[in-house]
Amino acid sequence: MTLRRKACIAGAYEHPTRKAPDKTVAQLHAECARGALADAGLTMADVDGYFCAGDAPGMGAVNMLDYLGLINVRYVDSTETGGSSYLLHVAHAAAAIAAGKCNVALITLAGRPRSEGSSGVAPRAVVPNVPDAPWESLFSPVTVNMYALVAARHMYQFGTTSEQLAWIKVAAAAHAQHNPHAMLRDPVTVQEVLDSPMISDPLHKLDCCVVSDGGGALVVTRPEIARSLKRPVINLLGAGEAVKGQLGGQVDLSWSAAALSGPKAFEEAGVKPADIQYASIYDSFTITVLMQLEDLGFCAKGQGGKFVADGNLISGVGKLPFNTDGGGLCNNHPANRGGITKVIEAVRQLRGEANAKVQVPNCTLALAQGIGGLLGSRHGSGTLILERA
Amino acid sequence: MSTMSQDRPLGTTINDAATEPFWAAAKEGVLKFRRCTACAKPNWYPRAVCPYCFGDTDWEASKGTGEIYSVSVTRRAGPIPYAIAYVRLDEGVTMLTNITDCDLDSLKIGQRVKLVFKPTEDGNHLPMFTPG
Predict the structure, then answer these.
(1) Which chain A residue has the Cα nearest residue B93?
(2) Residue A234 contacts by C-beta under 8 Å, 6 or more apart in sequence?
């Protein structure tokens, strides 16, 4: 079964908050759900499929559906691959719709890591019975150094430079200045990235994404329903998902799971990287973007540094406009998981509703890509290719 | 620039059925990994069931030498900078570890390293590496 044009994204909503000390996580989920349904022109009663991941408090759908009051749901999925979960959810929702299991699928994400004092240098929580934890946790892997190891290896193996990585942040900031909701709205220069404090070699502070409160939600529905609504019809053309780890001890940091999920999505969509007019690329760190661009085939392996340099990712300037909302690097990284915002901005671009200064003209084909978990050890990847009908 | 490594508090080990023989060997100064009795491939982190063929595996001693596959000096995750690294053991598996007892700023990918053990708060010995 192919998912090509079997489902549409009919609703998309990004919570405007970046700091929510007076709200609960569940409340943020509910506000996002309300926003996405209003955007689609649908109601609570229409929702018969629900998708959430590890940011949803409690036992996923069990607690959340009760809180939200969604009583017509007959299909649930709590697939958890970190920040990439929500891209997988879109694909899984499409499969469920194609199989007749549901008609209107709601996906929510929300969190308050900023209010709760989370950061990328804090020790990661140790969960009982995780098989790798006894062998790794005492060496103090934290989020940022498990991406820094990838960046260091990429520099060694391919000659990538800190200046090239900095261009990714420069492009995100160039876009964020036009987003009134972005957490960081000031343009930055390559030199400012290089002059920012070194967090874990070779990643500087400005190579890292923001820590923000907030959330987002998506509504996925069958094409007949999407066509009956007032919003532009955004088709899912292709989807891929993959997980990569340490390969039994044959660690290879030169590629990510996007090298597996990307080709699957392109094959299903029947398009190639050069056809993509806009790309949302998960930007937990600058190196995350570089790795995914190579693995998706936007450039050859090892050539990512040259590809991103000189503004090539800036809308209106370069060949591949990316993260025109400012991305995780500048706009928003709600729940420390940026996957859903990647889909939301791709939908905005395809609808022609991105901020005017960064809107890609006549954008009809877009890609959304996420990596969740730790790029340097174990991570999941989801790739979506979307078109405006 | 030079940043001499400092010993930092290592906390307590996580212990389960998979780790007991490992910590016992470490107390004797030996780093152990596991090798499949069916396909003969080594694996890391140690698994009782081979991640290549689902065969049974057994412990084997490493010589404790290898080279740095990747390294990052983490400068802002606490008061003490430390080097996290992947080290490729000469037996052919790559493990997450720390590089210590050296100038952290001098570390390079490809550099030869050898095993050192550092005590944890619960009296176990954690395998790290130092240049040489």
Answers:
(1) A249
(2) A8, A9, A10, A226, A347, A350, A351, A386, A387, A388, A389
